[in-house]
Amino acid sequence: MGKINTLEKPTPEKTTRFIKNAIKKSKLLTIAGKCEVDYQGRADGYLPLGERITILKPDGTTLVHQKNNSDPINWQPPGSRPSVKTQNKKVELKSERTSPNETLTITIHETLHTTSYNLTDGAQLTLNKQESQMQKQITKNPEIIEEGLRIIEAERKTGYGRIDLFGRDSQGNNVIIELKRKRVGPKAVDQLQRYIDYYQEKGYKNIRGILVSPSITPNAQKRIEDQKLEHIKLEPPKTKPQRIKTLDQFKNQQ
Amino acid sequence: MGKINTLEKPTPEKTTRFIKNAIKKSKLLTIAGKCEVDYQGRADGYLPLGERITILKPDGTTLVHQKNNSDPINWQPPGSRPSVKTQNKKVELKSERTSPNETLTITIHETLHTTSYNLTDGAQLTLNKQESQMQKQITKNPEIIEEGLRIIEAERKTGYGRIDLFGRDSQGNNVIIELKRKRVGPKAVDQLQRYIDYYQEKGYKNIRGILVSPSITPNAQKRIEDQKLEHIKLEPPKTKPQRIKTLDQFKNQQ
DNA sequence: CGTGCCAGGTGCCAT
DNA sequence: ATGGCACTTGGCACG
Lengths: 254, 254
Fold this sequence. Notes:
2 copies of one chain form a homodimer.
Chain A: E1 5-8, H1 12-24, E2 28-40, E3 44-56, E4 62-65, E5 74-76, E6 81-87, E7 90-97, E8 102-117, E9 126-128, H2 131-140, E10 150-158, E11 161-168, E12 174-179, H3 186-201, E13 207-213, H4 218-226, E14 230-233, H5 247-253
Parallel strand pairs in A: 12-13, 13-14
Antiparallel strand pairs in A: 1-8, 2-3, 2-8, 3-4, 4-5, 6-7, 7-8, 10-11, 11-12
Chain A binds a DNA duplex through strand 5 and helix 3.
């Protein structure tokens, strides 16, 4: 890991130089300071003066975090281009991108603390209990859903999106299956119905729609019944954690 | 602002003490270090060793950020309870919550840099181009949608969610309006249809459904026509930015 | 790039 | 707590 540099209560000029250098060297940067934030783009926003932590990542991601909440109060996504200058004794940190065109302007009135980091990390997250795992599980053991069911295709395309699983039951009916990893409401029913509509428009007959999820709200259950669809309760599976070594770790071992 | 404290390459014991103190004093904390992350809860996840920045907020929010991407690779939401201890010469930082029950465990093998902050910030973001602003705009000037339209109610309840705007046209038809701040696909059409279904189940006649958005995908347009609904193009309004002074700023002036 | 969907979505609000 | 939904959703996969 490269050296970590920190400035405490630097002047605006020093802050600007520090940020410029961090951007050039592709470092991850945190800036604690009193700032106001202006955003113009997909929406327009203004955040008055306050003390926050700004994070600038090497990929252009910019995050402004307040002392509470998971989500940043203002941000700019990866791919944004940062720039910084001193103006009226304030540090003006801009992060811009095109398509869509948007600009985040952080005006730092007072820098309290700023640090630049050089992080090495090639690891990837492995996750369980995902919808994709339900898909694999059912493809392998269709009898979980129903005896005699055959899965023909996963992710089958329609004009309105992809069907999670498409199959045929023991009676020869077409079966459209929509999977959800957690409790569902009416909009999951509509998603299923949309795929059925697509095939009915195409002239298909004998189509069954099955919504699969751990649970369902009462309103969604009513709508399932009204539209002659079916719901089956199923929890997402928990597979063994794969603690695969990543490229970075492999390199570290050389 | 309270004092900002920083430790560089502290021992596990020093790190643990530092974190404990920051939690007790309700400070915002950042920890740069080589760590692995385990998550058990709504899903199960494991992130192998790598260098990351962990942020611990006074409200219990915990964020693990890699050097790229907007989203944290692992996290815990506000309301989680953090705890920390030294074990096998490693720092084990846990963040737990109930309902749902979930635990995030960050095992720090090496602390590179850690800082605690005491931030003062009562400011709130004002945002333009929101759906709620389209709602107000149309309520005030219904002729934007159609001459002779009267808006009767906003957020009218149905069994399947709330209707953005409910009104009546010059012919006496009931009009259900669904607003979207950006380009819509088929699922917005279904959302509108769902509200119409609700009133049709109730026996209402003469119901029109109007989807209002800046633009629409071809598939959604087709579905609008198939279901005899209507689409009207409208951009979300940009109102004047309100740079209202917040309580914190008011206090600062005393 | 646009189209569509999953996500440990988060956050907000109403019952 | 549950329900339903907007969001600068972000992220991914595919045409």
